[in-house]
Known about the structure:
alpha/beta; Rossmann fold; GMP Synthetase, Chain A, domain 3; about 25% strand
Amino acid sequence: MELDDFWADKYPANINREVDVNVFATLIDLFKDSCCKYANKPAFSHEGSTLSFAQLDKYSASFAAWIQRHTDLKKGDRVAVQLPNMLQFPIAVFGALRAGLVVVNTSTLYTAAEMEYQFKDSGCKALIALTNKGHLIQQVLPKTGIRYVILGEVGDFFAFPKRLVMSRVDKYIYKKVPAYYLPDAISFLDTIRVNPTKFKEVEVSPDDVAVLQYTGGTTGVSKGAMLTHQNITSNMLQTYTFLATVLQIGRETILCPLPLSHVFAFGVVSVGMMLGAHTVFVSNPRDTNALIDKIESQSITVMMGSNSLFVELINQSALARVDFSKLKLTVAGSMPVQLKVAQAWQQITNSPICEGYGMTESSPVVTMNPPQAIQIGTIGLPIPNTQLRLVDDEGQDVVLGEVGELWIKGPQVMKGYWRDAQATADTISYDGWLKTGDMATVQTDGYLKIVSRKKDMILVSGFNVYPLEIEDVALTHVGILDCAAVGVKDFKAGESVRLFVVKKDPYLTEDEVVEHLKKELAVYKIPRSIVFIDNIPRSKLGKVLRRELRDKDPLS
């Protein structure tokens, strides 16, 4: 059964099943519209420094002008943006887009090996990062095609002398900037000192790729999803239809503690721009005391988070003392929110978590709980202009109420995977259906629930982790004969990685395995537990029987 018109009468009265997703042809059009409408309003803040929409417009134009006048970068070239949640991020992203470039979102948690893979695979010619990544950039730069390195500093947007003090404290006191040698690197501040009137508009079409968003790790399993301008603007307008029912134009303050390199945070912040919202960046969400202070001091009306972040917060006694009377909406993404966590958050804040479902390949939102009709434990209803199917292993529609793989179709579905026609064909059907790999069911009221994942991917605090990636790195250790990684339930992170290892060296220890993995993998990919076993269960064809491992008692 194709579940399309099934939802026609399932929406609250103030939400339409179909909306005009062609209001903005490109992300640039949307950006310029917001900067014009809300010119004098605050757009983004970080640690007390604030950019208005007018300033964002000016600085991004200056950055685009610098690209045009001081580089040979041309329309369609890729630029890697490896920045934390700081004011440099929106300037760099929108400046690059205005210059016609494709943004490659790159995690600040990546190791040198991970950076090298993504930079080479994407073919990026420029990189924007902070100085604390200088030593890693120096290491990988000769192995890539990157010709321009732009480096920002923590104190860039603070007035003198605070700017100088913060940068030096970060470097010399906190030791967060290891020594590096990049003599040709350009200061980020120099790029935005160019006269913005020197920028010449670039013709960009809706079907042009805007963002190359990688789905996961560093090996062949990691793929770059090509998200076009139309994909992203459509998804923003689709999501806006839900959020605008409870949020007011120009009167909201959004707290952004999730990394902007992740497609969920990127999308929420972009929708915030449409609303003329003031977004407050948090670059270190692990400092929960500071995070709680921001929630209270900034009069936050909208908060985004993930299950792992909510777990951290609800376990802080200080949270109970916060006045949440101005909090209108809490949105969750990146990973499923556990029922107990959602209930605890609502009890403390009186704000139910508005959970949805999405994936990188769908820009990202597919379903969402209507803010005025939230059902905790579900992923809500399909957002406007989105068709859904639930199918069995043969691709046939299942009966309503049964579990099936979720397939989606809509304007938010990616163009395809970067330079990987086979993976694109495997994921998107000939008639445009995106196969999510997630198993779901639909209630009679139209709300969906995710039952399990068909794929072996492990979701750690919202980050995609692929077993093969961990296994490939582990097997380079001389003391490991065989291994297999699986995801196990974790109250804080949703899932954590458990690595089963068959020893070649009988004296091999857990600590030695972990230290080996840390050399090549980001911290969120490191197994929380190492279990030594005699053999890895496999099928006759040699495939790892991961279900057997998930069910295995590590103490047995």
